[in-house]
Structure formats: structure tokens, C-alpha cells
Amino acid sequence: MADNRAALAGDRLLAYAALAPSAFLLLLLAGVPTITVFVTAMQDVGMGDTDGPFIGFENFAWVFAEPAFYTALWNTFVWVFGSVALEMLLGLGLALLLNKSFAFRGAARAIVLAPYLVPTVVAVLTWRYMLHDIVGVVNAALMSIGITDQPLLWLNSQGLAMTSVIMVGVWKFFPFVVIAILGILQSIPQEQYEAAKIDGASDFQQFWRITLPYVMPVFLLTALLRTIWSFNKFEIIYLMTGGGPLDATTTLPILVYLKAFSDFEFGRAAAIAIVTLAILCVLLAIYFFFIKRAEARQ
Amino acid sequence: MARVEINQVSKIFADHTAVSDVNLTVNDGEFLVLLGPSGCGKSTLLRMIAGLELPTYGDIFIGERRATRLQPKDRNIAMVFQNYALYPHLSVYENIAFPLRVRGADRKLVDDKVRWAAELVGLTRMLKRKPRQMSGGERQRTALARSLVRDPDVFLLDEPLSNLDAKLRHSSREELRQFQDRVGVTSIYVTHDQVEAMGLGDRIVVMQGGSVRQIGTPEEIYLHPADTFVATFMGSPPMNLVVTGDVTLGFRPENFLPKASFADNGPVTQITFNVHRVEYLGGDRLLYGVVSGNLPETQAIARIPSSVSYSPVLNTEVTFAVANSELRRFDTASGKAIAAEASMEKRRAANG
Question: In terms of residue numbers, what domain contains B321?
Fold first, then answer.
């Protein structure tokens, strides 16, 4: 066997040489910017500057004393857990439905996946138009069936803006959950259900004792992955509301952007970015922990 | 325990007929084997008995009840699947307990039953394991134990040994049969392996193309095949068939021996045989060649025990023979066996 053979010096060299281009690119694209941001976070960099005096952890101290940071942190959690929870529920439900056999199942699957394929800009512009308080089709529909008698300010009221953003986010990304769960549903051997039927399990018992245990690991991993991705999400929120009204939808990535390119406080923006990165690292660590455990179980 | 009766059952799928007009009675406590090549409808028939498929026509009775349209759970049957269908996330204990749990049995009863079943199949020390930590044979026994805990009326087994290696298959076959003798439950066993069928079955049902070709004890099926399909499907190597006009002659390779090895116990039919190749199999030698002489030239095989001293001469015509009592006759057109008495009478008439 090749893996039992002691590696020759030349083999090692070849392996490193083969890895070098990827390692170099990875460092260039991920390592260098991260380090640059970290360095910037230690500096007092203002408008028009790319460099400034080193001030140690002063920017971080500012971040943790800044109310806007806590507002953004809270908004981020609302956005992440609101949208991920709904995506997971909707995704699981639809995956279960699409796993049943019915006429036009193929077409139904394609339609469900459509939102995931629409470019974000196109989707957001369409949704903004639909959610417009005066000319939007959503308000028109709600008013015509009498749920509300005056237009709702979907994107321009502090109370509804986050709801609208979450709604569009869920619409855009739940197909990912559907694909992931449908995949695992289809890998469950039919004999398991047949054996359970013969043993007298009801439909609910079959779901509870067979389907759910199969789906659970993928469900959890998908939820974590969606959490990480939603945490990072910038464009869908920014294009919908720009973080407004009155910071109602300003999440951490948007706060970083606003600090950097609207307030031109690069040092402080970098410090927020680093804190965000730290939170994400914790999430990633949990994700890899679960992946490892799932692999060990296989 | 129960009798199973299958009345004129057919299953027609959109594009083909899987089972066509099958009539069959499985006696109480009997071990019945459904045997046939893949696609012969044996599994579909079993699934209809289980209630996993509905027959297109016909009726199925289990015990005194008409079960044709009953839900699988209401038939009081147990089934062992080819890949065992164990639940990978449950321990062996919970797998065996599953049928009781879903029926809401109380904890004490579940525990008693699981331990009783595990004891019966020799799994007592593995109850905490997960299926993936067990060998094929242990998984198969787990599936068997799971099917036991409910005291089913009928056992359905769908090729339960085919995922085991040859050696394990042999010992499992014996265990399975001993086990059935002990619990005495009516069992219906599907396989494509004739050795399994011969070794296990009280009776064998040979199926082909969705229909039953023959039902009988292993001896009946081997010694008196109902048609040329059964004659060639059973036995390895298969029965030699020589077409002589309207009648096809059939004789088993082990009955096709050099003329010299027949003492004068009964009349024999002499056949000219030209051996082309010899295969040594340890206990036996297979002689491949062509029969000729007063028969049309046809490929045939002779099987001679290694204990019989005979040195075959290749590519030379020698006289072989078959005892008349071992010679079978089939109608060439239909392939159906011609009953021994009928052929006897024909011969008597011909001889005056």
C-alpha cells in the first residue's frame, strides 16, 4: 500500500511544491487582508488616510463602549436567528412534502429552488417594489382583503423593517435547506419504512423514529452553516434598507461598512470587523466540532 | 401460527405483469421456499403477502382472515429483509424492541421479550451495540430477533442470507432451519439460490416469469421436474436435455455414467458419448461432451464421483448409459413432463 511506504525526501518536496500555489493564493486572499484589518484596527486611521499612529487597543475599547455596536449586535442576532429558524422550518416542511410522490413533483422541485437562483440584486429590487408602501402589490393585496385599511410601511418603519428583511432573506435562502434535507431524505432506505409499517408504526412514529434521526445531523449542520452565512450577510440587507430606518436593520457587517465608508473611521470599522470575526470563529468552531462528531458516527 | 392461502393472485404493474394467477396454500407451521431467477415475481408475491403491495386480482388469506386489503400491521406477520432494514441510530436492544415500543407495550414486557428473543438468536451480549458495530451475521440475527418479539403468525424472509459470505451463509442456513423447527412458525422464504431452497424448504415453489412452474418437496422437484425449465433450473450442472422429435429426453449428469459401471440392476438406455473436456472438482469430475449415435448430436455433461475409477478418453466415442428409471421425458412443444405411467403405456403399446 502506498500509504504504508515511508515518504522519500523527494516526495515531500514535490508535495510542498504542489501545495505552494494554493497556499500562496490562500495567504494572499485571506491571510493578508485579515492581517491588514487587524493592523488597521490598532491605528487611528481617519478620512483620506491609509495609515495612522498606533493606538493599541483603543479602537476596541471604543467598540465595547459604543451603543451603536450593541444595537448592531442585537440586530444581527435578531436577523440571524429569525431568518435561520424560519428557513429551517420552511425548508424541512417543504423537503418532506417534495419527498412524497405526486404529479409534477419534478416541476415543483424546480420551482421551489428558483429563489436561490435569482441574483440577489434582482430579487431585492423586485421585493422592494412589491413592498413599496404606495404602489406595492403586498399592501394592495392586504388592503383588498381587508387585513389592513391603510398601507403598511414595510421598509420605512422601525417596527416592520427587520421583519421585511427577514422575510426576503428567508424567501431567498430556504431552498438551500430544502436541497440539503431532500438529499438526506432520499438516502433513507425504503426498507426501513416498510419494516416499520409491518411492525405497526404509525405515520407519525415513522417520522419520529426513522425520518427525524436520519435528518437531524444534516438539519443541525445546515442550521449552523446558514447561521454563519447569515451572520456575514451584507448585500441583501443593505440593498433593502441600507441599514435603516434609524439603524433598525443595521447588523454588524453593515455597521462596519457605514463606519468605514460613511463616517470614514477606518480604524474603528476595522475593530468592529475583528470583533465580528471573533464571533464567527466561535460559530465555526462549533460547526467543525459537530462535523467531526457526525463523521465519527458514520 | 396460521395457514396462508393465495387465491388466483396477480400483480400487474404499469408496464409488466409481475405475478400472474398464482394459487398456493402454505400449511400451518410449514417452511415454504419461493425459488426462481431474479424477476420471476417471487419477491412481489412475498410483498403482497406482507401487505406492502396490493394484488391487482385475487385474494390472500392468513389464518381464517381475508387479508388482501389489510394494512401490513394488521396481518400479524413479521418480515426479514435482504439488507435487514435495521435502524442505524438505535442499539440492538432498541432495534429488537421497536415493534413492541410502537405498540406501546409496557417496559417490563419489552425487556422480557427482547431478552428472550436475543437469547434465542444468541445476541445477549451485544444488546448495547449499534448495527454498524456488528458483522453481517449478527445483523441478520438482530433482524430475526426483531421479527420474533411480536409472536407473529407468519414469518416472511426475503433473501435474508444473500448478503453473507459463503461460509457464513452455510452455517446461518442451518441455524435458521433449527430455529424454525424450534418456534414452529409458518415461514415463507424467498431465494434465488437452489441450494438454499433444497436445504431449507419443506416444500419449494419454483417460479418463472410471474407464474408457478412447480410446487413440491425438494425430492419431487429434483427427481420429477414438472417441465424443462424446472429441470434445468434445479441441479448444478443442470439436467441434460436431448430433443428427439416430439419428446425431449432428460437425465441428470450424476445418472449419466459409463456403461461398464452399471451392474445388472434394472434396464438401462445406452447413449454414445464423446468427451471433449474434463473438469476436476475434488469430489466429482465433470465430463463435457456431445451425445450422438441414435440420438441427435447434443451437448451434455456427465458427473462421475472421483471415487469411481474411470479414466476418460478424450474425443473418442464411448458408450455411456442412464438407468431407465432415471430417464425423464418432456413434451418438446410445451416443455411439460410426460407422466411416467403415460410413457410406459406408450412404450407398452409400441412393443405390442
Answer: 237-351
ipTM attached to this prediction: 0.80
The radius of gyration computed from the CA coordinates of chain B, to the nearest angstrom, equals 24
In a domain, A2, yes or no: no
In a domain, A60, yes or no: no
The whole-model pTM stands at 0.78
Does A38 fall in a domain? no
Q: How far is B274 from chain A (nearest CA, A)?
A: 50
A191 contacts in chain B (CB < 8 Å): 81-83, 85
Provide the domain count of chain A.
1
The string of pLDDT tens digits covering residues B139-178 is 988 998 898 888 889 999 999 888 888 888 888 888 888 8
Contact criterion met (CB < 8 Å) for B102 and A202: yes
A68 phi/psi in degrees, rounded to 5:
-60, -35
- Show the CA angle centred on residue B304, arms to residues B303 and B306, nearest 5°: 130
Q: What is the DSSP letter of B21?
A: E
SS3 category, B188 = strand
Q: Do B85 and A192 touch (CB under 8 A)?
A: yes
**Residue A84: C-alpha distances to residues A71, A172, A283, B300 (Å):** 20, 12, 14, 72
* Chains A, B: CB pairs < 8 Å: 59
Interface of A with B (CB under 8 A): 189, 191-192, 194-202, 205, 209-210, 213-214
Q: Which residues of A touch B146 (CB under 8 A)?
A: 195, 199
- B184: domain CATH number? 3.40.50.300
